[in-house]
Automatic annotation (TrEMBL):
CDD domains xref list: HATPase (cd00075), HisKA (cd00082)
EC annotation from Swiss-Prot or TrEMBL: 2.7.13.3
Topological category with respect to the lipid bilayer: Multi-pass membrane protein
One Pfam family it belongs to: HisKA
Uppermost EC category: transferase
Species of origin: Roseicyclus mahoneyensis
Protein name in the entry: histidine kinase
Swiss-Prot/TrEMBL catalytic activity: ATP + protein L-histidine = ADP + protein N-phospho-L-histidine
SUPFAM superfamilies the record matches: ATPase domain of HSP90 chaperone/DNA topoisomerase II/histidine kinase, Homodimeric domain of signal transducing histidine kinase
UniProt-annotated location(s): Cell inner membrane
Length: 432
């Protein structure tokens, strides 16, 4: 049996699910207990009491019909005899008078001469109209002789204390869920490259999870720092001999072989700079309020200064958003550089939404086949068949650096076809 519809209806948040777990047993208990109370008070007790009252009403009715001492008998039985009220020809009761339903049913069943029952005019002393001989008399009896007095009070108390205990349980439950929420926020912030202060608290299991998170965060930070230091050290150590080689080649006679060696040295320096950029991907600058349109305009201006054919599409009115400007600039610069390397014309588009900001870089180059886009995002991936490597040297770190920066912001980087330019389209989406 498919219960997918039930799963879709369930709350997705922890508070909602915990509240559901709390309320379902309480509501079920209320329904079961209420059903038993209704069965006892509204049917059994009311039926028994009304059955006993029928005997007294029948006795008074018979004495009135026979001319006996009906007044004395009625007084002894707490029954008041009065002329039948005008217009009392049908049973009357209040809508919420549930015990009155059972009382009227028993009176109708056991008193064949019953004309009508009025439970509405005076709730404390209802009137029973009976035919006694040739006349109709009204017998007023205390309501407590028909059914249990105020049975609704028990229901009111049950509902009140049920709601009160639900509120108390919710307060305790909220205090238990706070540490879980704090752990989730700390984990989410760390996923966005932010380190927020967090101290384990709450139940033993939550404290254990919190300590495990802190240990994991510490190990990840140490690993990233070691990787950055290692690559930075390697890059620095290799720059010195490369510089000596470059100086040595520059003083030699400039022939074809020396020129080729110089180009190799320059390419090695460029590769080392790229490695260093990739290693510094985790070392993001602090987030500050930044105008994304101004940032995009500066990147486009830098690309145009080196001869790139690129255009900018952005809203006229912009508002500052919380970004890491240096990291975003590095990411977009890599994307724009790739677009101009493999295409003739590129376009940068900025879209501001309520909860996110999207930078889109498109080109008119050969693009990347859909089946190889996941591979293109991996470090050191070089798709020679898809992207013409003759147009520039590289080690396949441009998209990897951009994706790494996007993930450190808590955003995403996706590749698709450009509908307008026909090449590759890269969407960088960052949360606001």
């Amino acid at each position: 049996m498919d219960f997918g519809w039930l799963k879709r209806m369930m709350p997705r948040g922890l508070y909602g699910r915990a509240a559901l777990i709390l309320l379902v047993p309480i509501v079920t208990l209320q329904i079961v207990v209420s059903g038993q109370i209704l069965q006892r008070y509204f049917r059994d007790v009311a039926a028994q009491m009304t059955t006993a009252l029928v005997l007294d009403l029948a006795l008074v009715r018979d004495q009135i019909a026979s001319g006996g001492p009906a007044e004395d008998t009625a007084l002894a039985l707490q029954i008041t005899i009065a002329p039948a009220a005008e217009g009392l020809t049908a049973d009357r009761r209040l809508v919420y008078d549930l015990t009155g339903i059972e009382a009227i049913r028993v009176l109708r069943r056991d008193l064949p001469d019953l004309v009508a029952v009025d439970l509405m005019t005076d709730e404390r002393f209802p009137v029973v109209a009976l035919r006694a001989g040739d006349e109709i008399v009204a017998l007023s009896v205390p309501r407590r002789r028909m059914s249990a007095s105020n049975p609704h009070q028990l229901l009111v108390l049950m509902v009140f204390f049920g709601l009160f205990m639900t509120w108390v349980a919710y307060i305790f439950l909220r205090n238990q869920l706070k540490p879980i929420r704090r752990l989730a926020l700390a984990s989410e912030a760390f996923g966005k490259g932010q380190v927020v202060e967090y101290h384990p608290s709450g139940a033993t299991e939550v404290r254990s999870a919190g300590r495990a998170f802190l240990d994991m965060r510490g190990r990840i930070e140490a690993m990233l720092e070691q990787r950055t230091l290692m690559l930075s050290g390697v890059s620095h150590d290799l720059r010195t001999p490369l510089t000596r080689m470059k100086l040595g080649l520059s003083i030699l006679d400039q022939d074809a072989d020396v020129a080729a060696l110089l180009r190799d040295v320059e390419e090695m320096e460029a590769l080392l700079a790229t490695f260093l950029d990739f290693a510094r991907g985790e070392a993001l600058d602090d987030p500050v309020l930044t105008d994304p349109v101004t940032l995009a305009d500066q990147i486009v201006a830098d690309a145009k200064r080196i001869g790139g054919q690129i255009s900018l599409t952005a809203p006229d009115l912009s508002e500052p958003v919380l970004l890491r400007p240096q990291a975003v600039r590095r990411c977009l610069s890599n994307l724009v550089s790739n677009a101009l390397r493999y295409g003739v014309h590129a376009r940068l588009t900025v879209v501001l939404a309520d909860r996110a900001i999207r930078f889109t870089v498109e080109d008119d180059g050969p693009g990347i086949p859909p089946e190889r886009r996941a591979e293109a995002l991996k470090p050191f991936a070089r798709l020679d068949a898809a992207r013409n490597q003759d147009k520039g040297s590289g080690v396949g770190l441009g998209l990897a650096i951009a994706r790494d920066i996007a993930q450190r912001h808590g955003g995403s980087l996706s590749l698709r076809d450009s509908a307008d330019l026909g090449g590759l389209r890269v969407d960088l989406v960052l949360p606001r």
